[in-house]
């Protein structure tokens, strides 16, 4: 589902706002309408610790996936923490977990190396062992069935947000030079839950 863009007054998300929203939903028993949460039963919903977060933690649904970029590479986090792409479908470092924190907000985690994908203010992708606001991504299921992941911390709801993207050589593309429509920024989410 594509997001609605409002010119002039970009909506900013803060970690505190997301936590407050999750607490309200926990109290009211409201279901979150994320594409990932929609596929999860109540037994699959777990809590996930977020760095510098208040005691109550947002609901998280975990989905095992491989993220296949439109330029024919799988996103991977290597053993040394380096982020990049690989053409090898069987690469164990390409097995990732998308954890839904709130509506259209996710964490991307590598269970193989116990690291989270994150993006700094310069648009550089890196990995870290504990999630924080730089590790949260605004997830949009585009009209062409591909998915985009923009930095939630620096999300401005414009065409030139900072997206997770891969170059053809397997290196990460600097997010300040990415756009939503570029093939380097678009990923298929291949669910591995149905492949076991």
Automatic annotation (TrEMBL):
Gene3D superfamilies: 2.80.10.50
InterPro entries linked to this entry: Fibroblast_GF_fam, IL1/FGF, Let-756-like_FGF
SUPFAM superfamilies: Cytokine (SSF50353)
Origin superkingdom: Eukaryota
GO MF annotations, alphabetized: growth factor activity
Pfam hit, one: FGF
Family: Belongs to the heparin-binding growth factors family.
Name the record gives this protein: Fibroblast growth factor
Name of the coding gene: LOC116289884
């Amino acid at each position: 589902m594509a997001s609605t863009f409002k010119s002039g007054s970009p909506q900013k998300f803060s970690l505190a706002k997301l936590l407050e929203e999750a607490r309200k939903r926990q109290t009211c028993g409201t279901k979150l309408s994320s594409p990932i949460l929609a596929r999860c039963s109540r037994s699959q919903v777990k809590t996930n610790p977020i760095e510098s977060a208040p005691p109550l933690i947002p609901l998280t649904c975990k989905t095992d996936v491989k993220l296949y970029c439109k330029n024919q590479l799988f996103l991977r986090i290597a053993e040394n923490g380096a982020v990049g792409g690989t053409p090898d479908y069987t690469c164990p470092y390409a097995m990732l977990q998308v954890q839904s924190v709130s509506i259209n907000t996710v964490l991307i985690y590598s269970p193989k190396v116990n690291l989270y994908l994150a993006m700094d203010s310069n648009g550089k992708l890196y990995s870290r062992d504990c999630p924080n606001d730089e590790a949260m991504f605004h997830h949009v299921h585009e009209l062409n069935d591909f998915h985009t992941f923009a930095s939630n911390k620096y999300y401005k709801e414009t065409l030139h947000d900072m997206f997770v993207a891969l170059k053809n050589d397997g290196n990460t593309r600097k997010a300040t030079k990415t756009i939503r429509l570029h093939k380097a920024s678009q990923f298929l989410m291949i669910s591995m839950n149905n492949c076991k």
